[in-house]
Amino acid sequence: MEAARDRLVPDVVADGLRVLFCGINPGLMTAATGHHFARPGNRFWPVLHLSGFTPRLLKPSEQDELPSYGLGITNVVARASARADELTAEEYREGGRLLARKVARLRPGWLAVVGVTAYRAAFDEPKARVGPQERTFGSTRVWVLPNPSGLNAHWTAQTMAQEYARLREAAHRTEAQA
């Protein structure tokens, strides 16, 4: 796994997605496999399904199916590390700047940052909470979701799925209004 440190993992993106999910940074398992949220204890894929974003539980190796559902994945910080606490404040800030440019180029309906701590650090929003944010990037709205890492014991898969479903419903309403 250590050989995967600092590797980059390609985004799963397309223009005009309904929701662009944004992780903190790739973990070593993700970097080793090239598949986002690949660590076995990560709850992203089960929560994505439980919340109704996908019709079935996808495996990390099936991530390229996401754009067919209007979904994509990127990260605040591109380089892989064993833990998010290995990232510097400057990496978060620079990642936020690069993410803003990526969102302006891709124009998703929603940017969903999975991890309130990462959102706070990347965009200098120290009081941000999980849920919809005031900040926008052009016409792209922002929603902060709980981090699906197995280390985030504050949220169960079920309570996370409820929050993800709130975003799914908001994205559906936004689409219906367009």
Task: Describe, in plain words, how this protein is organized in 3D.
The protein is of the alpha/beta class. It has a single domain, classed as Uracil-DNA glycosylase-like domain (Uracil-DNA Glycosylase, subunit E). The chain is 34% helix and 16% strand. It is built from five helices and five strands. A five-stranded mixed sheet has the order 2-1-3-5-4, with helices on both faces. A hairpin with a 2-residue loop joins β4 and β5. α2 crosses α5 and α3 crosses α4. The longest helix has 21 residues. The protein is globular. The mean pLDDT is 94.
Describe the secondary structure blueprint for this structure.
Blueprint (H helix, E strand, L loop, with lengths): L18 E5 L4 H6 L10 H7 L20 E5 L13 H18 L3 E5 L1 H8 L7 E7 L2 E6 L11 H21 L1
Parallel strand pairs: 1-2, 1-3, 3-5
Antiparallel strand pairs: 4-5
Helix pairs in contact: 2-5, 3-4
Organism: Streptomyces rubrogriseus
Enzyme class: hydrolase
InterPro entries: MUG/TDG, Uracil-DNA_glycosylase-like, Uracil-DNA_glycosylase-like_sf
